Amino acid sequence: MPPIRTQVAIIGGGPSGLLLSQLLNRAGVETVILERASRAHVLARVRAGILEWGSVELLRQAGVGDRMAAQGIPHEGCYLADEDLVIRMDFQALTGRRVMVYGQTEVTADLYAAQDAAGTTILHQVSDVAITDLDQPRSRVSFSQAGARRELICHYVVGCDGFHGVSRQTIPAEIRREVARTYPFGWLGLLSETPPVQEELIYSSSRHGFALASMRNPALSRYYVQVPLTDRVEDWPDHRFWDALARRLPAEAAARLITGPGIEKSIAPLRSFVSEPLRWGNLFLVGDAAHIVPPTGAKGLNLAISDVFYLHSALIDAVQGRGTAGIDEYSDRALARIWKAMRFSWQMTTMLHRFDDEDAFAARMRRAALAHLAQSETARRELAENYIGLPF
Ligand code: FAS
Ligand code: PHB
Description:
By secondary structure, this protein is of the alpha/beta class. Helices cover 38% and strands 29% of the residues. The site of arabino-flavin-adenine dinucleotide has 33 residues, from helix 1, strand 18 and helix 10.
């Protein structure tokens, strides 16, 4: 089959690949998206739930803000708890800004609908993607689909293919600088058609371990409990999950907990990871392809979106002949914000999770950090400005 010619080849049809494609298309830049999974598989993933307002604004700029405006829930604050010490973080009062509760699944669905309406080429269930000629005026992306070997010829390639994708591995190992921290626990998440236990999120540290009470809408709750890395979903029947959650939430919230059957249950490992640089010739890395944060700071999806913010305008300028200054500085600009979110996510994780090997001193340091937040508006403002999202 003859090669497909396009301007920007995007590897990965998750939120970052779709949003980048949508923004490029609206500026007249042609794209093709290659996605390993079926659309149904991508849309079945339950992941992030919180959007920074900068993410909300970029999604609106991309023309996919309508359903979010109708169904999203603006949140002006959240709660942090340490046993029965409960601290309300008033984002609106502390920073003048808020966040939006709107699930990644919905963001992805809105972007697929918009891309379909735009007639963008999205090829699903591709395999054996290989990226070459990154140092040439035109790069090539070869792949298999439905038993046929095919090829894209393009100006630029963007790796939006997540942590396990092919793009990062295309950058020579001797060029990549990778920094990682793995945590000795994971998050077991459960989705239930039950009303949320609280109208805002509760991040709860307890002697039994961490728990998070979140939501998707007034009838759909999303809960997480910290579990050992050795645990499997099968080890956690619903009743065990609900008991663990109730033990870890503040008593007055636990007393209000309404349980029900889990309609989705999954365990995510926690890691901090960054691979530098984010560019290798005509290849750019975006989102989880380049970095991973523990979900404690609600930064994963939002960092992917901020990478798209920096890269989309740079690629439009480069493709349309207005110079390469933007793409030349993309890696440094995006990494400056990535590292700050990396630090915040690490700080939230180490403050709120009970580590098996922690000694009495480490446990008291965690409690002191939360006690300081309870007493200091300055400390709460510092945490709030990171949680609602630092400026792009
Ligand atoms: P994604 O991983 O979403 O998308 C990458 C896409 O590329 C996938 O569709 C994949 O199928 C495709 N792909 C991979 N390899 C390919 C190849 N070789 N060829 C073609 N396509 C390929 N973040 C939060 O903020 N809060 C959370 O609670 C949270 N929970 C999470 C739970 C789990 C289990 C995981 C894995 C992540 C979670 N995250 C969370 C982070 C998550 O939301 C990511 O930050 C977000 O999906 C990043 O989006 P992308 O960079 O588009 O990567
Ligand atoms: C979620 O609702 O899935 C969620 C919310 C906040 C987080 C992590 C996950 O920090």
